[in-house]
Amino acid sequence: MRNSDNDFIYCENCYIRALTSFKHLNKEQLELLNYEKACNLYKRGDIVYHEGHKGGGVYCVNKGVLKLYKTGIDGKEQILRFAKPGDLIGFRSVLSDEAACTTAKVIEDAILCFIPSKLFVDIASKNSDFSMHLIRLSCKELGESNKYILDLAQKTLRERVAEIIILLYDTFGVDNEDFIQVSLTREEVANIVGTATESVIRQLSDFKKEGSIDLKGRKIKVKNIDKLRIISDIY
User: Fold this and answer.
1) What's the pTM?
2) 178 Cβ partners below 8 Å, 6+ apart?
3) Angle between the 117-126 and 27-36 helix axes, to the nearest 10 degrees?
4) Claim to verify: residue 101 and residue 181 sit in the same structural domain
5) In this predicted model, what pLDDT tens digit does every residue of 87-140 receive, in sequence order?
Protein backbone atom coordinates (compact mmCIF):
# COMPACT_ATOMS: atom_id res chain seq x y z
CA MET A 1 0.00 0.00 0.00
CA ARG A 2 1.28 3.47 -0.84
CA ASN A 3 -0.02 6.82 0.35
CA SER A 4 0.88 10.09 -1.35
CA ASP A 5 -0.67 13.45 -2.08
CA ASN A 6 -0.70 12.52 -5.77
CA ASP A 7 -3.17 9.73 -5.05
CA PHE A 8 -5.70 11.97 -3.29
CA ILE A 9 -9.06 12.19 -5.04
CA TYR A 10 -11.46 15.05 -4.30
CA CYS A 11 -15.01 13.75 -4.04
CA GLU A 12 -16.63 16.68 -5.84
CA ASN A 13 -14.42 16.01 -8.91
CA CYS A 14 -14.65 12.20 -8.81
CA TYR A 15 -16.71 10.58 -11.57
CA ILE A 16 -17.04 7.46 -9.39
CA ARG A 17 -19.16 9.36 -6.86
CA ALA A 18 -22.20 9.21 -9.17
CA LEU A 19 -22.07 5.39 -8.91
CA THR A 20 -22.01 5.28 -5.11
CA SER A 21 -24.07 6.22 -2.07
CA PHE A 22 -21.93 9.36 -1.79
CA LYS A 23 -23.88 10.98 -4.62
CA HIS A 24 -26.48 11.80 -1.93
CA LEU A 25 -24.09 13.89 0.18
CA ASN A 26 -24.49 17.65 0.49
CA LYS A 27 -21.64 20.16 0.11
CA GLU A 28 -20.81 20.24 3.83
CA GLN A 29 -20.68 16.44 4.06
CA LEU A 30 -18.45 16.24 0.97
CA GLU A 31 -16.06 18.73 2.57
CA LEU A 32 -15.92 16.61 5.74
CA LEU A 33 -15.31 13.51 3.64
CA ASN A 34 -12.41 15.17 1.80
CA TYR A 35 -10.91 16.33 5.09
CA GLU A 36 -11.04 12.97 6.91
CA LYS A 37 -10.64 10.32 4.21
CA ALA A 38 -7.39 8.85 2.90
CA CYS A 39 -6.72 7.68 -0.66
CA ASN A 40 -4.21 4.85 -1.03
CA LEU A 41 -2.71 2.82 -3.86
CA TYR A 42 -2.77 -0.96 -3.44
CA LYS A 43 -0.88 -3.49 -5.56
CA ARG A 44 -2.09 -6.91 -6.73
CA GLY A 45 -1.89 -9.35 -3.82
CA ASP A 46 -2.31 -6.71 -1.09
CA ILE A 47 -4.77 -7.53 1.69
CA VAL A 48 -7.01 -4.56 2.52
CA TYR A 49 -8.61 -6.14 5.58
CA HIS A 50 -8.87 -9.60 7.11
CA GLU A 51 -11.90 -11.65 8.04
CA GLY A 52 -12.56 -11.43 11.78
CA HIS A 53 -10.82 -8.07 12.22
CA LYS A 54 -12.34 -4.62 12.68
CA GLY A 55 -11.03 -2.41 9.93
CA GLY A 56 -12.04 0.93 11.40
CA GLY A 57 -13.76 2.23 8.30
CA VAL A 58 -15.22 1.82 4.83
CA TYR A 59 -13.45 1.64 1.48
CA CYS A 60 -14.68 3.13 -1.78
CA VAL A 61 -13.10 1.58 -4.88
CA ASN A 62 -11.91 4.28 -7.27
CA LYS A 63 -9.79 2.02 -9.47
CA GLY A 64 -8.96 -1.69 -9.74
CA VAL A 65 -10.59 -4.97 -8.75
CA LEU A 66 -10.72 -6.82 -5.42
CA LYS A 67 -12.01 -10.22 -4.43
CA LEU A 68 -13.98 -10.72 -1.22
CA TYR A 69 -13.71 -14.21 0.21
CA LYS A 70 -14.13 -16.39 3.27
CA THR A 71 -11.51 -18.92 4.32
CA GLY A 72 -12.56 -22.50 5.08
CA ILE A 73 -11.20 -24.78 7.80
CA ASP A 74 -8.73 -26.25 5.30
CA GLY A 75 -7.52 -22.78 4.32
CA LYS A 76 -9.26 -22.84 0.96
CA GLU A 77 -10.76 -19.57 -0.27
CA GLN A 78 -14.45 -19.28 -1.14
CA ILE A 79 -14.83 -16.15 -3.26
CA LEU A 80 -18.20 -14.53 -2.62
CA ARG A 81 -18.02 -11.50 -4.89
CA PHE A 82 -15.79 -8.93 -6.55
CA ALA A 83 -15.50 -5.21 -5.95
CA LYS A 84 -14.84 -2.84 -8.84
CA PRO A 85 -14.83 0.98 -9.30
CA GLY A 86 -17.87 2.51 -7.62
CA ASP A 87 -18.30 -0.28 -5.06
CA LEU A 88 -18.17 0.13 -1.28
CA ILE A 89 -16.58 -2.57 0.85
CA GLY A 90 -16.64 -3.02 4.60
CA PHE A 91 -19.71 -0.84 5.16
CA ARG A 92 -21.99 -3.55 6.57
CA SER A 93 -19.45 -4.41 9.28
CA VAL A 94 -19.14 -0.73 10.19
CA LEU A 95 -22.91 -0.18 10.38
CA SER A 96 -23.42 -3.34 12.46
CA ASP A 97 -20.31 -2.65 14.58
CA GLU A 98 -19.02 -6.17 13.93
CA ALA A 99 -15.78 -7.67 12.71
CA ALA A 100 -15.38 -8.13 8.95
CA CYS A 101 -17.03 -11.31 7.69
CA THR A 102 -14.76 -11.54 4.63
CA THR A 103 -11.19 -10.85 3.56
CA ALA A 104 -10.62 -8.25 0.83
CA LYS A 105 -7.66 -8.86 -1.49
CA VAL A 106 -6.54 -6.84 -4.51
CA ILE A 107 -6.40 -8.76 -7.81
CA GLU A 108 -5.82 -5.73 -10.05
CA ASP A 109 -3.86 -2.67 -8.82
CA ALA A 110 -6.34 -0.42 -7.03
CA ILE A 111 -6.89 3.03 -5.57
CA LEU A 112 -9.15 2.91 -2.52
CA CYS A 113 -10.55 5.80 -0.50
CA PHE A 114 -10.79 5.02 3.21
CA ILE A 115 -13.57 6.68 5.23
CA PRO A 116 -13.30 6.38 9.05
CA SER A 117 -16.16 4.54 10.76
CA LYS A 118 -17.22 7.47 12.94
CA LEU A 119 -17.65 9.82 9.99
CA PHE A 120 -19.42 7.18 7.90
CA VAL A 121 -21.93 6.35 10.65
CA ASP A 122 -22.47 10.03 11.43
CA ILE A 123 -23.32 10.81 7.79
CA ALA A 124 -25.62 7.78 7.59
CA SER A 125 -27.49 8.90 10.72
CA LYS A 126 -28.08 12.42 9.36
CA ASN A 127 -28.68 11.79 5.65
CA SER A 128 -31.75 9.65 4.96
CA ASP A 129 -31.10 9.34 1.20
CA PHE A 130 -27.57 8.15 1.89
CA SER A 131 -28.69 5.60 4.48
CA MET A 132 -31.53 4.33 2.26
CA HIS A 133 -29.06 3.72 -0.55
CA LEU A 134 -26.91 1.70 1.86
CA ILE A 135 -29.95 -0.37 2.88
CA ARG A 136 -30.65 -1.13 -0.78
CA LEU A 137 -27.02 -2.17 -1.28
CA SER A 138 -27.20 -4.48 1.74
CA CYS A 139 -30.42 -6.08 0.47
CA LYS A 140 -28.90 -6.56 -2.98
CA GLU A 141 -25.82 -8.28 -1.54
CA LEU A 142 -28.01 -10.48 0.68
CA GLY A 143 -30.09 -11.52 -2.33
CA GLU A 144 -26.95 -12.39 -4.29
CA SER A 145 -25.63 -14.44 -1.36
CA ASN A 146 -28.90 -16.39 -1.10
CA LYS A 147 -28.81 -17.13 -4.83
CA TYR A 148 -25.19 -18.24 -4.58
CA ILE A 149 -26.01 -20.72 -1.80
CA LEU A 150 -28.93 -22.11 -3.81
CA ASP A 151 -26.78 -22.51 -6.92
CA LEU A 152 -24.10 -24.41 -5.00
CA ALA A 153 -26.73 -26.77 -3.63
CA GLN A 154 -28.79 -27.38 -6.77
CA LYS A 155 -26.76 -26.69 -9.92
CA THR A 156 -24.29 -29.03 -11.61
CA LEU A 157 -20.64 -28.07 -12.04
CA ARG A 158 -21.22 -27.41 -15.75
CA GLU A 159 -24.12 -25.06 -14.96
CA ARG A 160 -22.14 -23.23 -12.25
CA VAL A 161 -19.07 -22.66 -14.42
CA ALA A 162 -21.26 -21.31 -17.25
CA GLU A 163 -23.02 -18.99 -14.79
CA ILE A 164 -19.72 -17.67 -13.40
CA ILE A 165 -18.45 -16.90 -16.92
CA ILE A 166 -21.65 -14.93 -17.56
CA LEU A 167 -21.29 -13.15 -14.21
CA LEU A 168 -17.74 -12.06 -15.07
CA TYR A 169 -18.85 -11.05 -18.57
CA ASP A 170 -21.73 -8.92 -17.25
CA THR A 171 -19.72 -7.44 -14.37
CA PHE A 172 -16.48 -6.47 -16.11
CA GLY A 173 -17.35 -6.25 -19.80
CA VAL A 174 -14.86 -7.07 -22.57
CA ASP A 175 -11.75 -5.47 -24.11
CA ASN A 176 -11.20 -4.65 -27.79
CA GLU A 177 -10.43 -8.33 -28.47
CA ASP A 178 -13.64 -9.43 -26.70
CA PHE A 179 -11.84 -10.97 -23.72
CA ILE A 180 -13.44 -10.44 -20.31
CA GLN A 181 -11.70 -7.51 -18.62
CA VAL A 182 -10.54 -9.27 -15.47
CA SER A 183 -7.61 -11.63 -15.11
CA LEU A 184 -8.27 -14.59 -12.80
CA THR A 185 -6.23 -17.71 -12.17
CA ARG A 186 -7.96 -21.04 -12.69
CA GLU A 187 -7.75 -21.52 -8.91
CA GLU A 188 -9.63 -18.25 -8.38
CA VAL A 189 -12.34 -19.34 -10.82
CA ALA A 190 -12.58 -22.64 -8.93
CA ASN A 191 -12.86 -20.69 -5.66
CA ILE A 192 -15.89 -18.87 -7.02
CA VAL A 193 -17.56 -22.01 -8.34
CA GLY A 194 -16.77 -23.96 -5.18
CA THR A 195 -14.89 -26.90 -6.68
CA ALA A 196 -11.41 -28.24 -7.41
CA THR A 197 -9.14 -26.35 -9.80
CA GLU A 198 -8.74 -29.43 -12.01
CA SER A 199 -12.51 -29.68 -12.45
CA VAL A 200 -12.73 -26.06 -13.61
CA ILE A 201 -9.85 -26.54 -16.06
CA ARG A 202 -11.63 -29.55 -17.61
CA GLN A 203 -14.94 -27.71 -17.85
CA LEU A 204 -13.39 -24.63 -19.45
CA SER A 205 -11.66 -26.91 -21.95
CA ASP A 206 -15.01 -28.54 -22.76
CA PHE A 207 -16.65 -25.14 -23.34
CA LYS A 208 -13.77 -24.20 -25.64
CA LYS A 209 -14.17 -27.41 -27.66
CA GLU A 210 -17.91 -26.72 -27.95
CA GLY A 211 -17.22 -23.21 -29.30
CA SER A 212 -18.81 -21.34 -26.38
CA ILE A 213 -15.58 -19.67 -25.23
CA ASP A 214 -11.95 -19.15 -26.18
CA LEU A 215 -8.97 -19.10 -23.80
CA LYS A 216 -5.73 -17.12 -23.82
CA GLY A 217 -3.72 -17.61 -20.65
CA ARG A 218 -5.90 -16.35 -17.82
CA LYS A 219 -8.21 -14.53 -20.23
CA ILE A 220 -11.62 -15.84 -21.28
CA LYS A 221 -13.45 -14.80 -24.45
CA VAL A 222 -17.19 -15.44 -24.64
CA LYS A 223 -18.07 -16.58 -28.16
CA ASN A 224 -21.65 -17.78 -27.61
CA ILE A 225 -23.32 -16.03 -24.67
CA ASP A 226 -26.77 -17.41 -25.51
CA LYS A 227 -25.53 -21.00 -25.32
CA LEU A 228 -23.89 -20.31 -21.96
CA ARG A 229 -27.11 -18.79 -20.63
CA ILE A 230 -29.03 -21.90 -21.65
CA ILE A 231 -26.43 -24.14 -20.01
CA SER A 232 -26.39 -22.09 -16.82
CA ASP A 233 -30.20 -22.10 -16.61
CA ILE A 234 -30.34 -18.29 -16.29
CA TYR A 235 -33.58 -16.67 -17.38
Assistant:
1) 0.84
2) 221, 222
3) 170
4) no
5) 999 998 998 899 998 999 999 999 999 999 999 999 999 999 999 999 998 888
